[in-house]
Every structure is written in C-alpha cells, then in structure tokens.
Amino acid sequence: MTPEVWFSLRLSLQVSLLATFFIMIVGVAAGYLLARKNFPGRDLVDILFTLPLVLPPTVTGYYLIILFGRNGWLGKAIYVWTGWSIMFTWYAAVLASFVVALPLMVRTTRAAIESIDKNLIQASYTLGHSELGTAWRVILPLARKGIIAGTVLSFARAMGEFGATLMIAGNLPGKTNTLPLTIYTLAGSGDWPQAQGVVLLLTVASGVFLYLANRFSRRAW
Amino acid sequence: MGLTLQLYKRVDGFALKVEWAVEEELAVLFGYSGAGKSMTLQMIAGLMKPDQGSIRLGGQVLFDSRTGIDVPPQHRSIGYVFQDLALFPHMTVRGNIMYGANGLAKREQREKAEEMIEIFHLEGLPEKKPAEISGGQRQRVALARALIRQPKLLLLDEPFSALDHPLRLEMHQYLSGAARRYKIPVIMVTHDLNEAFKLGAKIIIYSEGRVTQTGAPAEVRDNPVIREAKKFYDSAE
Questions:
Q1: Which end of chain B is more exposed for a tag (fewer CB within 10 A), N or C?
Q2: Residue contact B149–A128, C-beta within 8 A
Q3: ipTM, two decimals
Q4: Domain architecture of chain B: domains with CATH
Q5: Strand pairing partners for B190?
C-alpha cells in the first residue's frame, strides 16, 4: 500500500473514532429520552434523529452545507466570530460521519431501553433511587448490549461514510480523503490493483464489525 | 400509626373506589384477579397516581388530591416485593440487597447487607447472580432488599405464587418473622385462600374495584367471595 493509502486509513480511523465518541454521548442521551420521556414534539425529534438513515447522504450533506457552510445559518456566525469555517477540514468529515451514523446508535439504544422490564425501574424507585441514579445503575447497565452494538454499528457506518463527507469535507488529498473517497479516486484514475486492496480491507473490516455487533447484541448476562 | 387510605381511580373502563385502614399487622388483600388489588399497592407505593383520595402512613401524608401532596416513591419509605420479584439481573445477591440501603455510607450498607444475609439465610450466595439461585432463595433476596432500609410499610404483590407448597410454607415463616421483627404494617396481595387465612390478621376483600368486607379471618368467613373461592378449593381437592 502506498503512503497515500496509509494516510487515508489513519484519517478514516481518526475521523470514525472521534465521530463515534460524540455519537455515544448524544446517541445514548437521545435514545434514553425517546424511550423514557413523553415530551411535546417527541415524534418530530424521533423523525429528525432517524432521517439521516433513510436520506441519501448527499441530501444530508446538502443540509449540513446550509447549516455549517461559510454562509450557512450556524457557519456564518462561527465564521464571523472566529474567522474559521469547518468546511473542507477533517472536522467536517467527523461532522458528516457523526450525523449519518447517529441514528444507528439512537435506535439501538432506544430499543434496548424500551425492552427493559418496567418493574425493575419501578423497584429501583421504591428502593429510594432517583431517576438519574436509576438510569446510571439499572437502565444503562441493562441496556449495555444494545449500546455496545450501536457503538460498533455506528463506527462501521462512520468508516464507510462517503456522500455527506464529499459534500462538506471534499476529497482533498492528504487532508480530507478518507478511505471511501480514496477508493473513488483510485477507481477514477484506473488504479485497479490499489483500489481492490482498499476495497477488500474495508469489506473485511466491516464484516468483522458486523460480527462483533451481532455477538454483543446476543450475549446473555 | 398504621396506614389509612381512600382511593379513586378510573382506567380504561375500570373504576377502583376503596377506603380502608390497617394497623401494624399483616393484612391480606383478597379477591379475584382484576379486582384492583395490585393497582392499590401501586398507588400506595407512588408508582401510580390516584385520580382522587388520600394516603396516610404513620401520621405522614403521602398523597392528598385536595392539597396536591404527592410524595415521590423514592421518599415514601415503603418496601415493595413485586410479583416477579424484580431482582436486578446484572447485580449479585449482595449487590441487590445493598442497592436497597441507598443513602447510607458504603461501609454501613455492607454491614446491613451482611445482617440481612444472615437473617434470610443467604450465606454462601452473596456473590451469585439472581439467575444462579433457586426460586425460594430469590424470594428471600427480594424480602431482604425490601427490608434493609427498615421501611415504614411492606407491600407484597402475590410474592409466593410461583413457589411450590413446601417452599411457600417456609416463606410464610420468614414473612411472619419479618412482620414481628419490624413492627410495621405488612400488606400482601394474594388469591390463595389458604394463604390468606393462615397469614392475615386482617382480610380485606376486593371485588370489582370495591371493598366488600374487612375483618379478621373468622369474621369474613361467610363473605360471598370467600365462599365462592372455598367452593373452588374444595372441588379441586
């Protein structure tokens, strides 16, 4: 493998790990709220957190440009304030992976929490534990299989993110060209042997991740 | 210093309207399933909100729809043994029992847990998970967990229905012992007639969301619900 491909692999891991870190925090919180709380606009929030799963990643990327572009709703304010824009940096790749992979975490966490026996939660309340204490010591530990499975799936999805990344981070060699983008470049320039190597690498890695996700979501106590 | 309550609650076409009081004694809520017994326990524990009424425990108002008082379950100091026991599957026996001693220092929790392990004869099991012990042992863990904080009231929702006869007798002894030791009102839901008559100092008979009679076992013997249940038992034997 060439140094360029090694760079892409390292960048992809870096982007996916960071995106997964944020997904764990936001995804578990959102999954918990959707599973346990009734609040106005709950259905809307549910749809918002699921949309990136069904929309073409280019559409998600388009929205991210509208939001974070230099002239975007948020992006403009950030640019005026700091003189910096996230567009076409590797942080944009993290953002793209985060948004596209987040629904997997929210949905698996939510399903795991909803399947917990309600009596266990009520028992915790009668034993004097607050809602937060119960979440921490009963709900999250019992949902942990789902959370781990969601984490692995999110990471795998982040590793494979292409469309939204291309839209907001571009395909800048040595800067934002993650593995999927590099495959696109290699195939476009007719470098089939290299492309094939990277394709195999991603396929095997994704297969391993799926195996792990299945194992964790099945494993008993 | 007992428990006094007046409850009204309507859910899905079923209406519960009851009013009763118990002292520091073992009282049995008896009746067919669907009569509102478990619902009553849930409201006492604060897990379900009555539409109207009041609940008073040992001089403290736990719920009053007129003044808007509604003490959350965490602060009611009520031990609750669920029908399925609701032991935490990811914690050990000791972990489950200690979980009930919330608010105490870790060292104190540990000491109290040891005490409960001794009282309920769980020696040798503290490091096991609930799935690794027998049904009777699980019952004892649930009782120990509910009592470790020395609650002001103990509620049991058909706790022994899954046990076979000899184990049931054994659990009856533990329960009577606990009632004597802690001197608190104990309220048990059951639809086992023998159990009701054997354990209950007082029997509160539920029928379709109403209390039809309250009294000592000898006093309620001729109640239609009891007669009906007795007929069923006699024909089964």
A1: C
A2: yes
A3: 0.91
A4: 3-77+153-236 (3.40.50.300), 89-150 (no CATH)
A5: B30
